[in-house]
Amino acid sequence: MSKLTDIAENFDEFIADGTTVVDFWATWCGPCKMLAPILDEVADQMPSVKFGKVDVDNAMELAKRFQVFSIPNVCIFKNGELVDRLIGLCDETELTETISKHI
Questions:
Q1: How far apart are CA 41 and CA 4, in angstroms?
Q2: Which residues are the active-site residues?
Q3: In the predicted model, is pLDDT for residue 1 greater than 80?
Q4: pLDDT digits (tens, 9 = 90+) for 85-101
Q5: Range of the domain at 52
Q6: Quick check: is 53 in a domain?
Q7: Residue 3 falls inside a structural domain
Q8: Is position 43 within any domain?
Q9: Average pLDDT over the chain, rounded to an integer
Q10: Between the CA atoms of 7, 101, 95 and 57, what dihedral angle is there, to the nearest 10 degrees?
């Protein structure tokens, strides 16, 4: 289980400033469970970036708002705007490189 906290309740406030990475996931999703420790590791390496997660089953409106049709779906926000995303299981290098483009 990821150590990232669920941010659905304060989503807009959480993503408002700086670079934010949001993992859209579900408890029943195998690849999501495999991605969790990778996200934790990258979060530890990038202290200037905020990381959070959203369970799509509990926050369907957020998933719909950001057109999350497949999971895992990692969305990268810069000052509240969606600037990039990774769909499906990715490795630490791909995740780090994608996030680094937006810091």
A1: 11
A2: 29, 32
A3: no
A4: 999 999 999 999 999 99
A5: 8-100
A6: yes
A7: no
A8: yes
A9: 96
A10: 30
